[in-house]
Amino acid sequence: MVDYDLAKALTEEGLAAIAGxxxxxxxxxxxxxxxxxxxxxxxxxQFGEAMAGDAIEAGATALLDACAEFAPKAQRQPIxxxxxxxxxxxxxxxxxxxxxxxxxxxxxxLENFGKKSPG
Length: 119
Fold this sequence. Notes:
The protein is mainly alpha-helical. 76% of the residues lie in helices and 0% in strands.
């Protein structure tokens, strides 16, 4: 049993809980998928071990999208827009990080590393 209220999944507090705790996210996803997992003989431990990288990202996306679809009509579009904006922001931040990493002169870093005095 997981102590998490799906009705709060799209609140600031709910998003922070899911985003900040991958174990909680996997537990919530397992609870949702448990009937199918049980039918296929997949234990909660096996499910958790399989959830990494792209799988956990896809699970989080599916969970948030499903919660948005479940929201009352008046809230659905703003929630979807918030999720879309959040994903765009994450993509922009990732691209900027990659550009910064690509612009680092590693030979300069190594040269400066040797010049620093200890302590």
